[in-house]
Amino acid sequence: MANPNPPEASAPPAEDDSTAKMSFFDHLAELRRRILYSLVAVGFGFVLGFYFSEPAYEFLARPMIAALRAAGFTDQQMIYTSPLGALRLYLTVGLYLGVVIALPVVLHQLWLFVAPGLYRHERRAVLSFLFSGTALFLAGTAFGYYLALPPTLRFVLGFEGPFRPMISINEYFDLVLIILLGLGVIFQLPILIFILTLFGLVTPRFLWKNFRYAVLVIAILSAVVTPTTDILTMTVFMAPMILLYLLGIGVSYVVVRRRRAQQEAAKKEALARP
Q1: Terminal CA-to-CA distance of the chain, rounded, Å?
Q2: Of the candidates 194, 196, 189, 253, which has an alpha carbon nearest to the alpha carbon of residue 217?
Q3: Cβ atoms within 10 A of the Cβ of 186, count?
Q4: Who contacts 252 (Cβ-Cβ below 8 Å, separation ≥6)?
Q5: Roughly what angle, to the nearest 10 degrees, separates helices 169-186 and 211-225?
Q6: What average pLDDT does range 12-27 have in this prediction?
Q7: Which of the four, 19, 113, 208, 220, has the lowest number of CB atoms within 10 Å?
Q8: Of 144, 165, 161, 180, which Cα lies nearest the Cα of 67?
Q9: What is the DSSP string of 197-249?
Q10: Per-residue pLDDT tens for 28-54?
């Protein structure tokens, strides 16, 4: 069973007036403000993303076209089945591009929400947080596009039987964009562990002790995210999640070690004072 005792870590004390205690409603107001700013950023990103939605469509369609050609359907094209199908496609692609474009702003708003509970020197890690979060999100989408999608599409097209596929652009892109965005979010696991460690909610020992339960949860998530039922595709999704969890344990270890070293240095400095 999981450790019933809370992880051995203490919450950071306030170091200045900016970290004064906030009431529950103050936190709600702050959260609402950060969400509002994030939505505004996504809105601006959507306008820009919609402008580039057509080349983005051509890029995202390549795995499906390649899978169709590999299955012997060299003259096959994707279709739409409603008058608004093409417009809805461009709106959907533009919205997802807007999320990606606005991601640094969204991550910055998240950092501003959690920063008041951190030490002053920890708040200076905002650039590292933004760079790491954006890089991990892009790595997740790249993993989905280059490694997860091609074998998945080849697998599902292998069951065409006596039928000829007519792929709807809206259904295809709903699947593809959910997978890419989902993997981008899943790749934020080390960032989540980093934040939880900063607030003393987890420690490296706690994470390692519950590794087997984490693998079980990852397996369930992989089964939900994986669009096919074969073990190979599920393993393709599981492997990076497990590696990300192990990376998160390393991040948690570094955070805890630095915090303890800084606390010891502060104690020694306090004892040395006359």
Answers
A1: 49
A2: 189
A3: 21
A4: 193, 194, 196, 197, 202, 203, 204, 207
A5: 170
A6: 56
A7: 220
A8: 165
A9: HHTTS--HHHHHHTHHHHHHHHHHHHHHH-SS--HHHHHHHHHHHHHHHHHHH
A10: 888 899 999 999 999 999 999 999 988
pLDDT, tens digit, for every residue of 61-90? 888 888 888 877 777 778 888 888 888 889
Check residue 150 and give its pLDDT.
84
Read off the tokens for 71: 């299955």
Distances (CA, A) of 237 to 59, 155, 213: 22, 15, 17
Q: What is the pLDDT of residue 15?
A: 45
In angstroms, rounded to a whole number, what is the distance separating the alpha carbons of residues 59 and 46? 18
Beta-bridged to residue 89, according to DSSP, are none
What is residue 243's predicted lDDT score, i.e. its pLDDT? 92
Interatomic CA distance for residues 118 and 135, integer angstroms = 23
With CA atoms as reference, report the closest residue to 263 among 141, 52, 121.
121
Backbone angles phi, psi at 22, to 5 degrees: -110, 145
Which two structure tokens, joined as six digits, stand for 226? 């994986």
Query: Which amino acid type is present at position 93?
Result: V
Helix (H) or strand (E) holding 172: helix 169-186
